[in-house]
Write a structure and sequence with these properties.
about 140 residues; about 75% helix
């Protein structure tokens, strides 16, 4: 396997940010598509009707498109940086989705969730700093 350097350039950070945004937007579209079906609860008894309604929702397909673009960009990220570095840093969706949920879906985010988000930010910062310290050692 090719040795990939853990050099977090601005280009790689931008690509990771774009994957996070696309994934978050995709999730938002999925939620809007599911909500537009008018189905409160999916169970075995109503899953065929639910999926029939869902397939007709344009927002579902916007979400699929966002995920497809996310997939392509994510492969570009993985070709440039180790997965053990990219995955934790590239999961800012845990931060982006609560903001989008508040703004677009009018969901309430509790204090406990904000504390969790702060912990995620601290963890991502530590992981991104670990690549810098590894480069100094090498």
């Amino acid at each position: 396997m090719k040795n990939i350097k853990n050099n977090l350039t601005l280009k790689i950070i931008f690509l990771m940010l774009m994957t996070d945004v696309l994934e978050s937007v995709g999730e938002l579209f999925f939620k809007q598509g599911v909500s537009a079906t008018g189905t409160d609860h999916v169970a075995l008894q109503n899953c065929l009707i639910f999926f029939t309604k869902l397939v007709g929702q344009p927002t579902l397909w916007f979400g699929v498109l966002a995920y497809a673009l996310n997939f392509i960009l994510w492969l570009a990220v993985l070709s440039r940086i180790d997965l053990s570095v990219a995955f934790p840093i590239g999961n800012a969706t845990y931060i982006i989705i609560p903001f989008l949920s508040m703004i677009v879906l009018h969901e309430k985010i509790t204090l406990l969730r904000w504390i969790g988000i702060a912990c995620i930010i601290i963890g991502v910062t530590l992981i991104s700093r670990s690549t810098e310290s590894e480069q100094k050692i090498l």
